[in-house]
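User: Please fill in residues for this 79-position structure.
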């Protein structure tokens, strides 16, 4: 989980590329959820939908900050 927490921290700090580099090679469903969120942030909704499917989650429609807060809370990460 440390890597996932770092990914969220990097995204929060504005380092999209750094966050993406962390989650792109992690095969876990949790990383796929963060990966989906990253592509929502980027505006690539088609790619985000793919990663939501990989995560086993519905495509998020909430505010980006609300989704990030949900990720942090559910995965018990710090950001």
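Assistant: Residues filled in for all 79 positions:
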């Amino acid at each position: 989980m440390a890597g996932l927490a770092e990914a969220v921290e990097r995204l929060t700090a504005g380092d999209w590329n750094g966050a993406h580099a962390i989650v792109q090679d992690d095969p876990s469903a949790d990383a796929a959820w963060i990966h989906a969120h990253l592509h929502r942030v980027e505006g690539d909704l088609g790619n985000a939908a793919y990663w939501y499917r990989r995560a086993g989650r519905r495509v998020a429609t909430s505010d980006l900050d609300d989704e990030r807060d949900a990720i942090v809370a559910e995965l018990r990460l710090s950001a």
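For context: The radius of gyration is 11 Å.
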